[in-house]
Amino acid sequence: MTPPPPPRTATLFHDVRPFGGPAGDLIAVDGVLVPEAPAGAVVERVDGGGRLALPTLVDAHIHPDKTSWGEPWRSRRPADGIAAYVAGDVELARALPTPVGERALRLMSHAAALGTRAMRAHADVAPAYGLSGIEGVAEAAAKLAGIVDVELVAFPQHGVVRTPGVAELLAEAAASGLVTHIGGIDPAGFDAEGEAAGGDQLGTVFALAERHGLGLDIHLHDRGEQGLAPLRDIAARTRALGLQGRVSVAHAFAVAGLSGRALDETADLLAEADIALTTVALSVTTILPFRRLAERGVRVGLGSDGVRDNWSPFGNADMLHRAWLAAWALDLRLDEEFEACFRLAADGGAALLGLPRADLRPGSPADFMLVDGECVPQVVVDLPRRDLVVRAGRVVARDGRLV
Question: What is the pTM of this model?
Answer without folding.
Answer: 0.96
